[in-house]
Specification:
single chain; about 475 residues; mainly alpha; 3-stranded parallel β-sheet; 12 strands; elongated
């Protein structure tokens, strides 16, 4: 059996992290089964859909490694077909024109609210034998949903789901202005695209029951459905676009690596034995819907940072430097070409304990910047005894032709003995003089990452 999956976002805002995970699961299922993965842009909401969001969706998916097959499918270009199907449903008696005014619908909703029951359209125009058609109201077209009995679907994640047809209203498939609704457009497009598997959030379950009825009356092949639990915030509520770190862009700005975020989203609600880290190939080879859990997962930034740290430690350093350069150019200050080699050569310790690209950039600033500014709290630590140690270090350092760790250790150990102090007593003043802060990489790494002249220049400024 061929597998054809799709991801169908609406370009009404930046791509949500939950949408990225849905796209990832669809893409992995297609790729594992040597199938196709399509991107469908559902842009029929003309007022809210924007070109900038279409671009952001495509770029976000590409950044995390999800590439769709063929050109993206633009839903609005298929509206003519959607309308044709609506008319066909109408002619065959599977749909009808509804002339209820907005005021009538509002009153029905208020009545249901007072009674404490969910609103379901009262089907007034389903069998309009004794009704006069109003001349001042354009009708909507509603689908004739089943009134009695139950309907079952075999969900590939949730298992068998059974609901009563009585809770499914006669939903609108064509609005007053003649535009198709989501329920109709999604079904027509999935049929036209020959979609075999639909993976989407479990908030779509009721939509699936509605849409299956259209498939049935049109005698179209019904795709297999999988409804995955939603992602919740750390507070346990449904994650929304208003939450911090809810879009891909939020993570890129933090300096999260694409492979790390992909790995995290893969494991967010899916498991394979006790394995935590997956290469892209392993993700494709091992993914299946049986491993998807039925309960919502909480977004855990601490866990994301932990996985990101793992990837930072294990990525090839030239590749890491390239990512750092791109990050700095977009969100910090571009790294001067004259400083690039020094940063690259120091990457082994600059990345130590770094959880993000931003952490590495902060660790690298003493190399990147020409002028080091002392932080006020750190400058206070440069008291007379500390300045004396710095001065004596400079005197000894000047006499070294080519600095190396062995020679530096000799100087620092002698200073420790002479001033009856410890390693911190010597290293901290030197770090403040060279970096501008008592925090930073190890003192030997700092000194050896700078030129001898630069070390002398910075230390000489401390008087």
């Amino acid at each position: 059996m061929s597998f054809i999956c799709r991801f169908a976002p609406s370009p009404t805002g930046p791509l949500h992290i939950g949408g990225v995970r849905t796209a990832l699961f669809n893409w992995l299922l297609a790729k594992k089964n040597k199938g196709k993965f399509y991107l469908r842009i559902e842009d029929t909401d003309k007022e809210r859909s924007k070109e900038e969001y279409i671009k952001q969706i495509i770029e976000s998916l590409a950044w995390i490694g999800i590439k769709h097959d063929e050109k993206e499918y633009i839903q609005s270009k298929n509206i003519k077909k959607h309308k044709e199907i609506a008319e066909e449903l109408l002619k065959k008696g599977f749909a009808y024109k509804c002339y209820c005014s907005e005021e009538e619908i509002k009153q029905q909703k208020e009545k249901c609210k007072k009674q404490g029951i969910p609103y379901i359209y009262n089907r007034k125009w389903r069998d309009p034998k004794n009704l006069d058609i109003p001349k001042d109201i354009k009708p909507v077209i509603r689908f004739k949903s089943k009134i009695s009995g139950d309907v079952k679907i075999k969900d590939l994640v949730q298992g068998e789901i059974n609901i009563s047809n009585s809770i499914i209203e006669d939903f609108v498939i064509l609005r007053q202005d003649g535009s198709p609704t989501y329920q109709l457009s999604a079904v027509v497009d999935d049929h036209e695209m020959k979609i075999t598997h639909v993976i989407r959030g479990d908030d779509h379950k009721i939509n699936t029951f509605k849409q299956i009825q259209i498939y049935e009356v049109m005698k179209w092949e019904i795709p297999k459905f999988a409804h995955i639990p939603l992602i919740h915030s750390d507070k346990g509520s449904k994650l929304s676009k208003r939450d911090m770190a809810s879009t891909i862009g939020d993570y890129i700005k933090k300096g999260i690596l694409a492979d790390a975020l992909r790995n995290y989203l893969l494991r967010l609600g899916w498991a394979y034995k006790d394995k935590e880290i997956f290469t892209l190939k392993e993700s494709i080879d091992l993914f299946d819907l049986k491993g998807v859990g039925k309960s919502p997962s909480k977004l855990d930034l601490t866990r994301i940072l932990s996985i990101n740290e793992h990837y930072i430690k294990h990525i090839e350093e030239k590749e890491l430097f390239k990512l750092l350069k791109d990050f700095a150019q977009k969100f910090r200050k571009s790294i001067d070409p004259s400083k690039e080699n020094a940063v690259l050569q120091s990457m082994s310790f600059l990345k130590n304990k770094a959880k993000t690209l931003d952490d590495i950039y902060c660790n690298s600033e003493y190399i990147i910047k020409d002028n080091i500014e002392l932080l006020p709290d750190d400058e206070k630590l440069l008291d007379p005894p500390a300045k004396k140690i710095i001065s004596e270090f400079l005197e000894k350092f000047n006499k070294i032709d080519v600095p190396n760790k062995e020679k530096l250790e000799e100087i620092i150990n002698n200073l420790i003995k002479k001033h009856n102090t410890n390693f911190k007593g010597v290293g901290q003043p030197l770090r403040i003089a060279l970096v501008g802060s008592r925090f930073g990489p190890g003192i030997y790494n700092i000194i050896l990452s700078l030129t001898k002249d630069e070390v002398i220049k910075r230390i000489s400024k401390i008087n």
